[in-house]
Amino acid sequence: MKALVLESVKKLSLRDYPINETVGPYDVKIRIQACGICGSDVHYYLEGAIGDFIVKEPMILGHEAAGIIIEKGEKVSDFAIGDLVCMEPGIPNMRSREVMEGMYNIDPDVVFWATPPVHGCLRETVVHPAQFCFKLPKGMSAAEGAMMEPLAIGIEAAKKGAIKPGDTALVVGCGTIGVMCAISALAGGCSRVYISDIKQEKLELAGSVPNIIPVNTAKVNLEEFIMKETGGRGVDIIFEASGSPRVYPDFFRCARKGARVVLVGMMNGTVPIDVAFLQGRGISIETIFRYINCFDRAVALVNAGKIDIKKFISKTFKFDDAIAAYEYAAAGHPEVVKVMIDLT
Fold first, then answer.
1. Residue ranges of the Enoyl reductase (ER) domain (predicted)?
2. What pLDDT is attached to residue 59?
3. pLDDT at 51
4. Residues in contact with 79: Cβ distance below 8 Å, sequence separation at least 6, in sequence order
């Protein structure tokens, strides 16, 4: 079938690729309608690896997608042919200890799209367990459905932040995931969310959402700004979403006593942390890795009008122009949050 294939570092091809997938009794076959480009896709394209995950042979990219069910297994009763669905891209081993303990996101046997050696979903059709598919309500587009994957990360971060109604939050980093954290924090009950970055274009887009306050740290000192805004108290929750070692450990000083800090951004290597400061302020730290049961919440929030996800789809390319789409995404345009590929 036609697919976007990463042949090697910085070499993509849009070609026929042999994929043999059988629809099992609990599976559905989906015709892909939309697929977003994630930062991890770009990283594989430019570097050929993320940590221990190394592209050693041609691999189909893409893991943020939505599409129409065109076939279903005999045991599937929750979906009908023609349903528009989004898909959670990771399939865990349902018998693993991690799954049994409610942590399927860190199951070591998880099969996750576009994570070597597993092929992604930027192709004409995929077969996927119905259990990890979510029906999109009437009026919701496939492109919005593809945005449920990054939004699920923001929702998982909001869950880990244990938001209380009226809390204030700071998101460090205004990339795609930082924006998802900010809008999820608002939907979860925060009264104000500050978001910091050095790219003014991204900050302006995030700041167009009511009660998100952008902070350009190329122009102001973040700690001084936050303390002035909060009367010297600090914010209730911090989401570190930049994944940049350069922001450590200073951003912790924006937290009030007893605050929660959620580490969302991933990086290689180690960073400095002032343990005595954290202990003296009673600051607790949580981490996230992907998400746990967040896709249905993401769909519900968008359907209810609590989150407008469409405004963060910055540019759309047709499937035939998928290589150009990746080149555009890799260029790092400061005004871009999400590049989408339309497969209709």
1. 7-341
2. 98
3. 82
4. 28, 69, 72, 85, 130, 133, 135
Residue 240 has a pLDDT of 98
What is the bridge-based pairing of β-strands 27-37 and 53-54? unpaired
Q: What pLDDT, on the 0 to 100 scale, is given for residue 178?
A: 97
Residue 56 to residue 117: CA distance in whole angstroms = 8
Q: Are 180 and 158 in contact (CB under 8 A)?
A: no
On the CB side of 242, CA atoms within 13 Å amount to 20
Q: DSSP string spanning 216-266?
A: ETTTS-HHHHHHHHTTTS-EEEEEE-S--GGGTTGGGGGEEEEEEEEE---
- Contact indicator for 296, 273 with CB cutoff of 8 Å: no
Burial class (CB in 10 A: 0-12, 13-18, 19+), 95: exposed
The residue type found at 3 is A
User: For residues 180 and 150, is the Cβ–Cβ distance under 8 A?
Assistant: yes
pLDDT score at 276: 97
pLDDT in tens, 28-54: 999 999 999 999 999 999 999 988 889
d(CA 21, CA 125) in angstroms, rounded, equals 10
Looking at residue 285, its pLDDT comes to: 98
Low-confidence ranges of the chain (pLDDT < 70): none
Look at residue 144 in the predicted model and tell me its pLDDT.
Answer: 98
Domains of the chain: 2-147+309-342 (3.90.180.10), 155-287 (3.40.50.720)
Yes or no: say if 334 and 174 are a contact pair by the CB < 8 Å rule. no
d(CA 334, CA 332): 6
Separation in Å, CA 92 to CA 105, 188, 254, 285: 8, 27, 37, 26
pLDDT at 267: 85
